[in-house]
Amino acid sequence: MAANPARLSAQDSWDVTGLVYLWGASIGGETTTGQSVDVSFSDIVETLDFGLMGSLEARRSGWAVFGDAIYLKISDSGTALVGPGIPASPDIEVQGFVFTGGVGYDFVDNGRTRLNGFGGLRFLNLDTDANISSPGGSRRISGNLDNLDAILGLRGTQELADRWALNYYLDVGAGDSEVTWQAALAFDYRINNRWSVNFGYRHLAWDVDNSAVLSRISFSGPFVGAKYQF
To answer: Which of 124, 221, 115, 218 is nearest to 169 (CA)?
Structure first.
């Protein structure tokens, strides 16, 4: 009976964990005209102006609230031909923001295995600006894509050894998109009670029906990050 108040107090407190990571993702997809999109991670790094990736999770009494955000700003310039022997100099800037957030509850939590079911939202924003200069003048092209989708999913952790754990994640949803889904598999290596290293593979995709340019878009690749428990 003397231990119960302490245990209840621990259950009522919030456990907060933050993760800052680098996702070596390539960009794939398909345009509305049927052309494939394939941009490698090395191409993204060469044209990257700024990028920020991180997630935050708060847990209390079996409940979990989490959010994951990705921001990228990419720009490039070069020379292309718009006609026989007619050069053009395109300047292109792309800004992208993806946020996934949700609230879930632990259906299983026995100390070594945790399974959390959740519902939430995913927001995608892509802004594209291109200024094409040629001997005949210049032309500016702009495009914007905003998609908000509801998602349902499962996420969990399986303890493997004293310092190792396996994390898994799967969600699917729809709304402004015909369908969006995400899957990830990662390992945690605990350095101490506060810090751990997280690495794995992640895929995130949309089938969109409200864009004049893209019909599908996806991000896929390995990631590595540092996790801190507050």
So the answer is: 115
Task: Please count the other Cβ atoms lying within 10 Å of the Cβ belonging to residue 61.
Answer: 12
DSSP state of 131: E
Residue type, 29: G
Q: Are the beta carbons of 54 and 69 closer than 8 angstroms?
A: yes
Residue 193 tokens read as 């009670």
pLDDT digit string (tens) for 146-189?
Answer: 999 999 999 999 999 889 999 999 999 999 999 999 999 999 99
**Torsion-angle region of 60 (φ positive above 0: left; ψ -120 to 50: alpha; else: beta):** beta
Q: What is the mean pLDDT of the chain?
A: 82
Nearest one of 71, 77, 83, 55 to 167, comparing CA atoms: 55
Longest dimension (CA), the chain: 87
DSSP class of 58:
E
86 confidence band (pLDDT: 50, 70, 90): very low
Estimate the share of the chain in helix, then strand, then coil, as percent rounded to the nearest 5.
Answer: 5, 75, 15
Q: What is this structure's pTM? A: 0.82
Beta carbons of 54 and 71 less than 8 angstroms apart? no
Q: How far apart are the first and last CA of the chain?
A: 29
Q: Which helix (H) or strand (E) covers residue 47, if one does?
A: helix 41-47
